[in-house]
């Protein structure tokens, strides 16, 4: 039935049904974030040079000229009062992410994005750019050749752009200069933050950790937090304690949820979605209006002028839809959609039906519309 359902849904754009026979175990490391083990965002303002005439127009981007003057003066070149209008430079924002436990000397990827009116960053080179964190301190320095993600070609009368040539990246383009001070080895308590807070899942994580260490080391604080006393885990260090618990399997408990995308007609649902006893009736009305004006002319050799006489035809057609159908209580949503597909209902009409069932209080799940 599921194979047939997917085939019918794909024929009417796309309808995705996810259903599993039994819950599957997931590692704790895929369900939680460890407190303190996080990345930090970095940002910088720099200059890309070496462009083939696709850089900023300095009249429209005066900040490009300003940073170019600053860089040249730091290199010992005096350009005060000089007029220069190169088209091979572009001002850019440089963004990156400092990984947890990133050490000085390590390299990280950076993303480069034009902020002026440059048309392409293809073939450009980023000049040494400091990257700052939210505290204003410099944590990395970026430099290197930009790999742009698009193509830009133009002639005298036409222009073709594919992708986004004004944005690119530099693999391993930044080197970490400052480390984030975090003494992980000195922790005595570690908090696990659930990515999707749920009391049942948190209780299962607590039970799995306590079974592993043989004592009550974990304690559920709320639906989104489990605290682990590292002294009670029986390991030599906090890092060893994380290794001992992060790969433990746990069956997560998730809320019943239906997600629909009206633009593409996609429907995604979980296996726990249920529908109470409800009756459904659906039909379509089509309004047709036709304009067929007639030109009326005077007789030959007669005085007068041509007059346009409007003629409008209006009609309302009720297309056949679903008659009154009763859905028994406890029916799964997948069974309802399978029945609607068998009747030839399109995914967009199906979404409207699901909205109405939810409004009637018969659909027991979170209903998310994208």
Automatic annotation (TrEMBL):
Q: Which Gene Ontology cellular component annotation is one that this UniProt entry carries?
A: bacterial-type flagellum basal body, distal rod, P ring
Highest taxon listed in the record's lineage: Bacteria
A GO biological-process term? bacterial-type flagellum-dependent cell motility
Keywords (alphabetical) are: Bacterial flagellum, Cell projection, Cilium, Flagellum, Periplasm, Signal
GO molecular function (one): structural molecule activity
Which N-terminal stretch is annotated as signal sequence?
1-23
Q: What does this protein do?
A: Assembles around the rod to form the L-ring and probably protects the motor/basal body from shearing forces during rotation.
Instruction: Name the PANTHER family on file.
Output: FLAGELLAR P-RING PERIPLASMIC PROTEIN FLGI (PTHR30381), FLAGELLAR P-RING PROTEIN (PTHR30381:SF0)
Q: Which family does it belong to?
A: Belongs to the FlgI family.
How the protein assembles, per its UniProt entry?
The basal body constitutes a major portion of the flagellar organelle and consists of four rings (L,P,S, and M) mounted on a central rod.
Q: What is this protein called?
A: Flagellar P-ring protein
Gene field? flgI
């Amino acid at each position: 039935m599921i194979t047939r359902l997917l085939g019918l849904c794909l024929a009417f754009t796309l309808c995705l049904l996810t259903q599993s026979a039994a819950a599957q175990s997931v590692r704790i490391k895929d369900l939680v974030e460890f407190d303190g083990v996080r990345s930090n965002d970095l940002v910088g303002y720099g200059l890309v040079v070496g462009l083939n005439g696709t850089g900023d127009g300095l009249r429209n981007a005066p900040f490009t000229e300003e940073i170019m003057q600053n860089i040249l003066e730091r290199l010992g070149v005096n350009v005060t009062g000089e007029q220069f209008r190169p088209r091979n430079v572009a001002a850019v924002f440089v963004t990156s992410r400092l990984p947890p436990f990133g050490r000085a000397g390590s390299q990280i990827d950076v993303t480069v994005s034009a902020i002026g009116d440059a048309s392409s960053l293809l073939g450009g080179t980023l000049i040494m750019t400091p990257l700052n964190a939210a505290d204003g301190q410099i944590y990395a320095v970026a430099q290197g050749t930009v790999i742009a993600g698009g193509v830009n070609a133009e002639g005298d009368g036409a222009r073709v752009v594919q992708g986004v040539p004004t944005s690119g990246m530099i693999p391993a383009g930044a080197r970490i200069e400052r480390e984030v001070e975090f003494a992980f080895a000195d922790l005595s308590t570690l908090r696990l933050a659930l990515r999707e807070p749920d009391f049942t899942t948190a209780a299962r994580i607590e039970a799995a950790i306590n079974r592993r260490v043989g004592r009550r080391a974990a304690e559920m604080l709320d639906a989104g937090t489990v605290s682990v006393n590292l002294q009670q885990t029986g390991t030599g260090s906090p890092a060893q304690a994380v290794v001992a618990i992060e790969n433990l399997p746990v069956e997560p408990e998730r809320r019943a949820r239906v997600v629909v995308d009206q633009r593409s007609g996609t429907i995604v649902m979980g296996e726990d979605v249920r529908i109470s006893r409800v009756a459904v009736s659906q039909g379509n009305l089509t309004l047709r209006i036709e304009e067929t004006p007639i030109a009326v002319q005077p007789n030959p050799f007669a005085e007068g002028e041509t007059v346009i006489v409007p003629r409008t035809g209006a009609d309302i057609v009720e297309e056949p839809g679903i008659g009154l159908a009763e859905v028994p209580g406890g029916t799964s949503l997948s069974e309802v959609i399978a029945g609607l597909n068998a009747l030839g209902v399109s995914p967009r009409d199906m979404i409207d039906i699901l909205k109405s069932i939810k409004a009637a209080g018969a659909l027991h799940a979170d209903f998310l519309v994208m």
